[in-house]
């Protein structure tokens, strides 16, 4: 995601401190694993393909959902602590696979 946020490989390299080669290899490996062309890169500059834009938006949504889930779990733990529950108990969480939002949370 830093490549997109920084507008290309060179600025992502400068911001992250890893080599241009490493960034390029990571992107190529991701495209191979996904069997999708995610971005156009070269002398003409950097841009996401339509598939790349869709994957980027899905990744952003996943990070937002992860942050929300982390906050929710923290609040739940704080609530359990005030209710006298022991930390040895477990949480079981089910997710909506479309939105990645938690659907049900059980204390086991």
Q: How are the elements arranged and paired?
A:
Elements: H1 2-5, H2 9-16, H3 20-34, E1 39-40, E2 47-48, H4 50-83, E3 91-95, E4 102-107
Antiparallel strand pairs: 1-2, 3-4
Brief rundown of the structure:
This protein has 108 residues and is α+β, with helices and mostly antiparallel strands. The chain is elongated and about 60 Å long.
Protein architecture, described:
The protein has 108 residues and is an alpha+beta fold. The chain is built from four helices and four strands, in the order αααββαββ. It has two domains: 1-48, Arc Repressor Mutant, subunit A (Orthogonal Bundle); 67-108, no CATH class. Strand 1 (39-40) and strand 2 (47-48) form a beta hairpin. It starts with a helix and ends with a strand. The model has no long low-confidence stretch (mean pLDDT 80).
H-E string:
HHHEEHEE
How many strand units?
4
* CATH overall fold name of the largest domain: Arc Repressor Mutant, subunit A
What strand line-up does the widest sheet have? 1-2
Give the DSSP E fraction (strand runs of 2 or more residues).
Answer: 5-15%
Query: Given the structure, what is the number of helices?
Result: 4
Name given to the CATH homologous superfamily of the largest domain = Winged helix-like DNA-binding domain superfamily/Winged helix DNA-binding domain
Report the average pLDDT across residues: 80
Please, how many domains? 2
Name the overall outline. Answer: elongated
Low-confidence stretches: none
Computed structural class? alpha+beta
The major β-sheet equals: 2 strands, antiparallel
Radius of gyration: 19 Å
Estimated helix fraction: 55-70%
């Amino acid at each position: 995601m830093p490549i997109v946020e920084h507008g290309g490989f060179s600025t992502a390299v400068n911001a992250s401190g890893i080599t241009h080669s490493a960034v390029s290899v990571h992107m190529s490996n991701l495209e191979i694993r996904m069997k999708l062309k995610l971005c156009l890169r070269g002398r003409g500059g950097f841009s996401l393909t339509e598939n790349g834009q869709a994957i980027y938006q899905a990744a952003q949504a996943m990070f937002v959902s992860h942050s929300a889930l982390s906050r929710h779990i923290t609040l739940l733990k704080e609530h359990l602590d005030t209710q006298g529950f022991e930390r040895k108990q477990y949480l079981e969480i089910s997710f909506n696979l479309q939105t990645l939002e938690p659907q049900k949370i059980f204390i086991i």
